[in-house]
Amino acid sequence: MLHNNNTIKYNCRLRRGSRDNIIFTTIILVICGMLFHVRQVHSFATVTAPCLPLKSSIGRNNNNNQIRCATVVAVNGEASSTDQAQSEYMWELRLNVNEKARTVASVCTSGTLCTVSGHEGIQGAPFGSYVDYVLDDGGNPVLLMNDMSMHTINIEQNALNNEDGSNGASNLVTLFTQLASDTSEQSQDVSRCSFTCKVEKIPDDSPDMDILRMRYSITHVYADQVMDSPIFSFYRLVPEKIYFVGGFGVIAKWVDIGDYKNAAPDILSKDAAIIVKKLNREFTEDLEGMATHLLGVDKLEYIRVTNVDRLGMDVRVTRQQGTRRNKLMTDEYRIGFRIPVISVEDAKSEILKVFQESWEKGEGVDWGDADTPPGSTVPIMKIAADGLE
């Protein structure tokens, strides 16, 4: 009997000890969770991304480190600049230029191919043609071309049979492609790329020929009717230089070839144009409220979304300058998402959250949290300022 009582007491001590361990472990986990949450909130306080003026400042003594720093606009607190080297906890709010270039090349399926003319009377002159293309796994544009087309003739003369440039003409070609715009007036706002390339004729026994044929037939419905013709052949453009333009006055930069090949297109690339069009058409009041309450724009003329990607959206805001109505200034802002999105539905949710917080700020909604009033944690940056005065 004594043995049994001791056993019972021992088991009770074990259960009490286990319960104490569970309580201690729970307290530790709660504390860690609170610290993690604080760290997450802190990470949205400052951000880094290029901040370029619309008007070029090349040649000036620029002491404000515009290229290396990002300015967080004053609507989310006092404006400040933060060196990129100190961005330990900072979110990247914009795609890098390599991702942007790869996204443009992936979304577009046609462009203007510029070859060096060999035609009598215009020898050596650039000759532009409309062409369709797809990308191979390395991001190289692949074209299906008719042997009798003028651009194919130019390529045969000056690109394929002129590797050393011995005939005096360049052996390079340039493919220009740009994203679609809603109207012709907005065509300067969209991103575009120029790929200056060497040309390779793809043999029928190329390891990736089956994949290229399938991609071409899926992307271009006419391809099945002509790709087996003896007068049609596949050509691969291998980039030597890539030049990216993000829109009028926003960013223009040469892209490293290796970085481009290693980059992946944005996950929203196929749907971004539809989202942008819907926002500009159906959410005008929400966009105007966002400009007024989150961006602090006075005398707003109009606001328009120019791009959406997994990290946020770009908006172009035009406002009156001074007392004259015909004096307008246009700036571009980056509205960041708190977390990178992985689907169209996620992007819609993040955008609606921004609209909701701007409405709450405008209506003076108070949730009782003085440290984080509505709109205070939305990452916002002024990425381009109008210098065309």
From TrEMBL:
The chain crosses the membrane at residues 21-38. Gene3D superfamilies: Electron Transport, Fmn-binding Protein, Chain A, PNP-oxidase-like. GO terms for cellular component: cytoplasm. This is Uncharacterized protein. The keyword Membrane applies. The keyword Disulfide bond does not apply. Residues 275-351 form the DUF2470 domain. It comes from the Eukaryota. InterPro entries: CREG_beta-barrel, DUF2470, Haem_oxidase_HugZ-like_sf, Split_barrel_FMN-bd. Residues 96-261 form the CREG-like beta-barrel domain. Keywords: Membrane, Transmembrane, Transmembrane helix. Pfam families: CREG_beta-barrel (PF13883), DUF2470 (PF10615).
